[in-house]
């Protein structure tokens, strides 16, 4: 069964489109993906279809009847429709020309130099796509005989048009028959090596840029074995089928997505925002989060080609901008925050339509206070019918927020419209199992938390990697020396400095100052959580250097290698909250995609957990 995106045919689809949707879904193998009404430039073809051993085809579906066609040229079709005794004349672009234009837009995009892995690198066809492509029209209410009788066969030839009787014969004919008929629409079919995973993902990312997770240099594995890899080529990582189906099928209204760490909640937020923004450039789209660094990272992820109608803000900068209020001299941040929220809520009945948004998407919603949601919902243009998406995970709540509230009490009308993502895409199996064992397995949640901020257990991890390591040190200086050695080892193994993060649970300035100075003796350091540092603050995310940050500042980010240091600072002795501290540890450990090491100096209730962790090993000198 093929993958259809969205995972159901929308009610707005015509009867003919629903029929074709069902045929593609039920008749094609599971390596085929078909999109219903994807955005191509400023147009929306009915279907695009892609498979690694098939190629790419664009299809347009028309439900016209033979008696309605009054005149046809290679440019346009004149239809006569009779309603209430009145004949109405409609002019349409010839669907063959229409679908060919769609394909030309796609192929022009695929021809850009950076997408070299999608082109033949040498030989007489050098520079041409390395897979076949085609286009066609499906006439769901006109038979081939009717075309012949109307003398329209030349304008609607069999190699470009599937008629109603042919469509009927394809039902139940088997996948080979359907594939053979679709291949007949290729202008120039040719044998080709099946596309690699990177090639398929990159085609998807080029066709639908809203599904791109990241853009990276292509490798030898990006092209078929033995094929030349051209310099400067890129490959895309994209949403998987399930994530994309969720992003495209949410529809209007309020929705909540609960997802485990690394399940792609942030990617889903970005994809959904781009889908809305690209479908209608007049719509105002707002993405909110709590973390400054995450907001900066979201802007960076969207890049320069981001739709101009998407606004990305961390919550406090957003409310400050909306209210125009600034922090007063000598005012505590808590007092300033209360003043901001009060001003926002007072303005609920006074916001103009120009102030409001067509869509609001909230990432890391478990870090929001109830009143913050009220601020957001008050600025959603269509209220309960407006487009709102909230992403959360109760296991990652760090700030001791008020958990005893219901979604409806803060204006979020999402009853019956929540989804759960339990597959982890970020971490290795070893890292995730270790993180859950030492940070989450002992947490007891109360009923209010389990209802509003769901704490999900990961059910599937796709990757494997090295076992996490840990090491306790006798002194802070000894720990810092160990961290410096580990950073050096990671660098020697080819891990880029910006992909190495040293995370600490609490900002004990003297201790972390010393660590930063030591690390800077051998390389650049971006101290993300220290705005006053000469090479720090969220602006440093765009700069090279090893990342140094509190876990709070690293929320929503990920790194190839993570050293979680100063574990002895947990639990927090000033604000005892085992759930919050366990969540903090969990968030920090799950920032690592491939390598994870935990260090500490001294001893605490949390360091005592590590020697009993079955999913990790003690770090010895022989492993350094």
UniProtKB/TrEMBL annotation:
InterPro entries per the UniProt record, alphabetical: DNA_helicase_UvrD-like_C, DNA_helicase_UvrD/REP, Helicase_ATP-bd, NERD, P-loop_NTPase
Keywords: ATP-binding, Exonuclease, Helicase, Hydrolase, Nuclease, Nucleotide-binding
Helicase ATP-binding domain boundaries: 235-424
Annotated signal sequence range: none
Gene Ontology process terms (BP): recombinational repair
Keyword Hydrolase tagged: yes
Protein's name in the database: 3'-5' exonuclease
